[in-house]
Amino acid sequence: MFPLNAESAYSFDFYGNTAGNQGQPLLISNRGRYIWNEYPFNISVNEGKIIASSGLADFVTGTAGSTLKDAYLYCSRNFFPFSGKIPAEELFTFPQFNTWIEFTYYQNQEGILEYARGIVENGFQPGVLMIDEGWFREYGNWDFDPGRFRTQKPC
Fold first, then answer.
1. Looking at the domain assignment, is residue 3 inside a domain?
2. β-pairing, 10-13 with 42-46?
3. Is residue 140 in a domain?
4. Dist CA 13 CA 93 (whole Å)
């Protein structure tokens, strides 16, 4: 979330720059308005006008009430509907550790195993270990990168 107003002069390419991995193809306003695209897009704001462009998918825009909360709730229901499935109980009952702080985009098997051992060796309760960004070969490929992870049993 970032503030933009009628005096703002701003442009951003959500496709080419994920702003530290925080880019999201949804914009909502404190006046209940929203701009949604299934894919990242370019946006510019100048003299109170928002111009958004994408060659990947059509935009969905509209107004859902008159507040930021109204827009958020509408977008949540329509673009990110609740599946009805409750996440694993361990996500609520055990500590969660994330490899992003240690490795950012450079996740690898040896480093992650060392990180996991360090958690236990330093007296922390074992919990959920989330292997973050960069474990795959490329975006959209759900296989571990064989250059960074072995396919054999790790421990």
1. no
2. antiparallel
3. yes
4. 39
Q: What single-letter amino acid sits at 24?
A: Q
Q: Give the tens place of pLDDT for each residue, 79-102.
A: 989 899 999 999 999 999 999 888
- For residues 110 and 24, give the distance between their C-alpha atoms in angstroms, rounded to a whole number: 31
Q: Encoding tokens for residue 48?
A: 């109170």
Distance between CA atoms of residues 69 and 31, nearest Å: 9
Query: Do the Cβ atoms of 10 and 45 come closer than 8 Å?
Result: yes
Contact 102, 115 (CB under 8 A): yes
Looking at the whole model, is its pTM more than 0.85? no
* Nearest 10 degrees: Cα torsion 66, 76, 89, 106: -110
Q: Does some domain include residue 29?
A: yes
